[in-house]
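Please describe the entry underneath.
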Amino acid sequence: MTDLTSNTPESVRSHKPPKTEFMVYFAVIFVATLPLAVLTWALKAVRTMALPDRGPVARAWTQARIITPMIFSA
């Protein structure tokens, strides 16, 4: 009987540090989404008369984390 658990295939992906190209795209997208994030954060703050839980930087960071991998997977 063959034990496949001891010899894992080489095609198994390991976690690699982000490449320079990914970081450049991430930075550009982050800077591009920051003004809109500030605007939506301010509008929500005015409407509710309270500061939202997540700030504009966190919102822009999340959007960049969502959009950048979509570019690389296409």
Summary: The chain has a mean pLDDT of 86. The first helix runs from residue 20 to 48.
